[in-house]
């Protein structure tokens, strides 16, 4: 299996296109970094400012809003804010700090979309290209069954996704450290769960943040992989997956305003961050509901890919 | 003779159309088996079924005793094949291509790769990208890819396609040597008849998805009786003499005399008969039929019959 994955990685990293993708990613991170650097200077928050009274004041306002709010989702949000603010005052953790490397890494997570785009391109091509090149014939007459070959390809796609997100994270951290500096004292991230506030190291938090942010991309990559193996057509796989990547969540949001079944749509569930910070798309949606939905979609995609790939006559 | 590839009542139906109809044959160790037929007859489909690229609708194929259907991995382990053109990864070097395939079978050493490269004569260019290779070099790389794991069966679909005469000859000699020296069974498909005649021990003829005949190449070319051209004067007299006295012998007028079909041991008697009739005999020449003639004969006869 390891040999098969090595083969697939060789086929990806021996093509110049792959380096163009990595290059584009690095360049865009750099542009974002420089842009941030020169635009932030003006609205740099004054961190030495007395912040405790500000938070106390905010909490007063939140409390009155909480009492007058009839919606449960809103109430939960206020409760969370109040709890976190109280924790800050109690443990002396300022709510704003100077824009630093970790702020930049967090902002860079927007670029997971770009990493996802490139991963989809690779995923869409990894099976379809073998058919286009005609190499599928020589690949499938080895003493290895087709399921293993397909699995090695899927694992390779996941590895590629990991590499892209890793580059994004690593390079952002490096560039952020150079441009914005590493803070002397790293403030923890405050987590609110079940009415309790806990501290989390910022790096751990960011890794989780990136991981959850990548779910969208992993699901679409899996879908592209499925289309690629079922239809042997990389253009279709790239086109459809990218289209859904950019429009899926908007459409889902539109549908969810009218219909309750929107919660069963893939894109209503890919953003798990909504349960941690912010509010769910629809009432009644929970983290476990979304995870189950994601698993169902995942299994369907994989089943289709493996079933068709295993069955198909190779006549290319 | 020990058979290594066995096809038994193999049928392939695609979308209700029978592409391959009940084909059975065996290929023995150490022989070169030619698979001959016009384009679209089902050669490539049959080969694809042998290597497991296509499902078999009914019947079975075994390689070294393992069914390609139920024991794919064991069966295909002993097969090296090029199906149609040897398509390689063009963006990789020849060597990287071989590494790629070597990794997919257990126990292929670096030395084995180097040895195979030398064997097919690609040592000078093996580290160049495949996209810079000529068609002949790609064929050789394709051959190297087949031979890496010392297969017991080598399957080559149109191996001389696109090669120049020197290349064709090289491949042909090479295939013959492999069969002789390593006792490998080689299955070669082609629609070029002269090619097959020089390369194969036996041939199977396929037309419209049915196997018309399997014969030794000599038998196939010569048939049971041979043709002889008698250079005789006067040829008119000889012709009438034959027609009255031997009405069963097929005879025709040819450019230098007359041509008749008869067994070799009947030739002296025929000469004697001519001499006694005062027909002058200047020469006797055996006219061997080309594979092409035979092929057209066979496909016309049997193919026509099967089609009714």
Report what the structure shows.
The complex is a heterodimer of chains A (316) and B (308). With 316 residues, chain A is mainly α. Chain A has one domain. In chain A, 73% of the residues lie in helices and 3% in strands. Chain A is built from 14 helices and 2 strands. Chain A has a two-stranded antiparallel ribbon with strand order 1-2. In chain A, strand 1 and strand 2 (196-200) form a beta hairpin. In chain A, helix 5 runs antiparallel to helix 8 (146-180). The longest helix of chain A is centred in the middle third of the chain and has 35 residues, at 146-180. Chain A is globular and about 75 Å long. The mean pLDDT of chain A is 83. Chain B is α/β, with parallel strands linked by helices. Chain B has 2 domains: 3-221, Rossmann fold; 224-287, Alpha-Beta Plaits, CATH 3.30.70. Helix content of chain B is 37%, strand content 29%. Chain B is built from 11 helices and 14 strands. Chain B has helices at 43-50, 72-76, 94-102, 110-119, 135-147, 165-182, 193-199, 217-222, 235-245, 267-276, 291-307; strands at 3-14, 17-28, 32-36, 58-63, 66-67, 79-82, 153-157, 185-190, 202-207, 210-216, 226-233, 251-253, 258-262, 280-287. In chain B, strands 6-7-8-3-9-10 form a 6-stranded mixed β-sheet, with helices on both faces. Chain B has a 4-stranded antiparallel β-sheet with strand order 2-1-4-5. In chain B, strands 12-13-11-14 form a 4-stranded antiparallel β-sheet, covered by helices on one side. In chain B, helix 6 (165-182) links the parallel strand 7 and strand 8 (185-190). The longest helix of chain B has 18 residues, at 165-182. Chain B is elongated and about 75 Å long. In chain B, 40% of the residues are buried. Mean pLDDT of chain B is 83; it is low at 303-308. Classes of the chains: A mainly alpha (316), B alpha/beta (308).
């Amino acid at each position: 299996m390891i040999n098969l994955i090595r083969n697939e990685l060789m086929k990806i990293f021996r093509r110049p296109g792959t380096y163009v993708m990595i290059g584009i990613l690095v360049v865009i991170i750099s542009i974002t970094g420089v842009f941030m650097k020169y635009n932030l200077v003006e609205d740099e928050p004054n961190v030495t400012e007395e912040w405790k009274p500000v938070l106390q004041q905010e909490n007063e306002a939140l409390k009155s809003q909480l009492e007058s709010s009839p919606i449960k989702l809103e109430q939960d949000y206020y409760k969370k804010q109040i709890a976190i603010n109280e924790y800050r005052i109690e443990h002396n953790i300022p709510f704003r700090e100077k824009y630093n490397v970790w702020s930049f890494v967090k902002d860079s997570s927007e670029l997971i979309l770009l990493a996802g785009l490139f991963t989809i391109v690779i995923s869409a091509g990894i099976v379809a290209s073998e058919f286009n090149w005609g190499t599928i014939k020589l690949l499938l007459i080895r003493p290895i069954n087709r399921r293993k070959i397909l699995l090695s390809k899927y694992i390779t796609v996941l590895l590629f996704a990991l590499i892209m997100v890793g580059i994004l994270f690593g390079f952002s951290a490096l560039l952020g450290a150079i441009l914005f500096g590493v803070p002397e004292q790293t403030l923890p991230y405050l987590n609110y769960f079940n009415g309790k506030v806990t501290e989390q190291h910022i790096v751990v938090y960011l890794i989780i943040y990136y991981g959850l942010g990548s779910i969208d991309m992993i699901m679409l990559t899996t879908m592209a992989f499925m289309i690629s193996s079922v239809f042997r057509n990389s253009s279709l796989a790239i086109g459809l997956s990218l289209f859904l990547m950019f429009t899926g969540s908007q459409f889902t949001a539109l549908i969810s305003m009218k219909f309750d079944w929107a919660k069963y749509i893939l894109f209503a569930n890919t953003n798990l961050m909504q349960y941690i910070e912010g509010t769910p798309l629809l009432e009644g949606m929970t983290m476990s509901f979304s995870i189950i939905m994601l698993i169902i979609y995942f299994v369907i995609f994989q089943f289709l890919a493996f079933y068709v790939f295993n069955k198909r006559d190779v006549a290319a | 003779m020990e058979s290594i590839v066995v096809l038994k009542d193999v049928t392939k139906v695609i979308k209700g159309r029978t592409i391959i109809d009940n084909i059975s044959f065996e290929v023995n160790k150490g022989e070169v088996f030619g698979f001959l037929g016009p384009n679209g007859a089902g050669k490539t489909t049959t080969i694809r079924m042998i290597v497991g690229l296509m499902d078999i609708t009914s019947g079975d194929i075994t390689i070294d005793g393992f069914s390609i259907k139920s024991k794919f991995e064991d069966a295909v382990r002993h097969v090296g094949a090029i199906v149609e053109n040897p398509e390689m990864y063009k963006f990789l070097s020849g060597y990287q291509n071989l590494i790629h395939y070597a990794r997919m079978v257990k126990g292929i050493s670096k030395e084995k790769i180097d040895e195979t490269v030398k064997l097919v004569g690609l040592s000078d260019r093996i580290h160049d990208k495949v996209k810079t290779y000529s068609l002949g070099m790609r064929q050789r790389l394709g051959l190297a890819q087949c031979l890496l794991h010392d297969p017991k069966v080598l399957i080559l679909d149109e191996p001389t396609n696109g090669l120049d005469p020197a290349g064709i000859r090289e491949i042909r000699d090479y295939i013959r040597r492999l069969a002789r020296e390593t006792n490998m069974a080689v299955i070669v498909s082609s629609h070029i008849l002269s090619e097959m005649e020089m390369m194969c021990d036996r041939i199977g003829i396929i037309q419209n998805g049915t196997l018309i005949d399997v014969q030794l190449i000599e038998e196939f070319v010569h048939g049971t009786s041979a043709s002889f051209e008698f250079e005789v004067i006067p040829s008119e007299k000889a012709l009438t003499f034959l027609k009255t006295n031997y009405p069963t012998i097929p005879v025709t007028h040819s450019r230098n005399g007359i041509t008749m079909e008869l067994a070799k041991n009947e030739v002296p008697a025929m000469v004697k008969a001519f001499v006694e009739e005062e027909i002058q005999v200047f020469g006797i020449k055996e006219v061997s039929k080309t594979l092409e003639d035979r092929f057209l004969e066979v496909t016309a006869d049997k193919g026509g019959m099967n089609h009714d």
